């Protein structure tokens, strides 16, 4: 019999004394982990073992473990916040669990029952709630991960796996200066039939060399193109605000979910809020393909108002410039972003910090 993952069996062992963290303004993204981790082991014959929250520690693994050779690894990124009312909240954890399962399923790793996954996440956040840094922009970054750890050099269906969650207190992500993007067409992040719509570890390592190349040329990030169409920016979804000079209407747009892009929880939330809150007599909200040529041509007609990247880490990152070979699209926005970029950031942050009490942010108590 293969055992289900059972949250009622959760075993908790806490550390005696807590580590101390640097002040908020010195927290760099993902460098320091909290004192605990949640771990559950899985075996294809016996199923899930007892989930445990225990002191953060190294894993001991066979060097032949699948994860080290064949990239059986996927992850999630989400956050817990201390609100202005001192309540702890997590943002749409069910969406992250659903996506984790989309990723595990793609590489034959076990799925985590979404309700159980969220329950375990909540228990873990409760244990760490006192180390969530406070203030707007501050949060506890949570990293649910699944890896295969059976040892064999023959690649096949994993027979052993670990589901674990670790956490890192993080500050508000601020780019050091204007975000200039290199529209990259000599490497692709994803392709039809590929895995770009899942958060597999294997998707990320190959993006580092093109990013290094872009950095050498003075760019912050790659704007990933596929056949000339804009897909994502770095590890963020990409949004544009166009002005249609003929109709006078503004268009708020992002790439469609065609398998090439990651379905960001931030993207999904922004679109849902925009459809609810932007005046339809002034706005058109679309998910469509935008070609780099359209961006360049419309920028020449002053029809490109704003551009930003969207994701859990930074919520929105305003883009100042996109360069494609010798062409440059300069966006007429301040360092903080244009009007719409700022509005979207406020919507999301107000929800995260309990200023706007909204079902997207679930209280943990
Ligand atoms: C994680 C990720 C995003 C953002 O997703 P969120 O759920 O909004 O954090 C976007 N693009 C890629 C490639 C990602 O890995």
Structure description:
- By secondary structure, this protein is an alpha+beta fold.
- It folds into 2 domains: 7-172, Aminotransferase class 4, branched-chain amino acid transferase, N-terminal domain (D-amino Acid Aminotransferase, Chain A, domain 1); 180-352, D-amino Acid Aminotransferase, subunit A, domain 2 (D-amino Acid Aminotransferase, Chain A, domain 2, Alpha-Beta Barrel).
- It has helices at residues 66-70, 93-106, 114-128, 208-216, 265-277, 292-300, 339-352; strands spanning 11-12, 36-43, 47-48, 52-55, 73-75, 78-82, 88-91, 139-148, 160-170, 180-184, 221-226, 229-233, 236-243, 250-254, 283-287, 304-311, 315-318, 321-324, 327-330, 361-364.
- A hairpin with a 2-residue loop joins strand 12 (229-233) and strand 13 (236-243).
- The relative contact order is 0.14.
- The structure holds pyridoxal-5'-phosphate (PLP).
- Pyridoxal-5'-phosphate binds at residues 77, 199, 232, 235-237, 262, 264-267, 311-312.
CATH class call of the largest domain: Alpha Beta
Structural class: alpha+beta
Question: Any idea what the CATH architecture of the largest domain is?
Answer: Alpha-Beta Barrel
Please summarize the sheet with the most strands.
Answer: 10 strands, mixed
Question: What's the quick description here?
Answer:
With 365 residues, the protein is an alpha+beta fold. It has 7 helices and 20 strands. It folds into 2 domains: 7-172, Aminotransferase class 4, branched-chain amino acid transferase, N-terminal domain (D-amino Acid Aminotransferase, Chain A, domain 1), CATH 3.30.470; 180-352, D-amino Acid Aminotransferase, Chain A, domain 2, CATH 3.20.10.10.
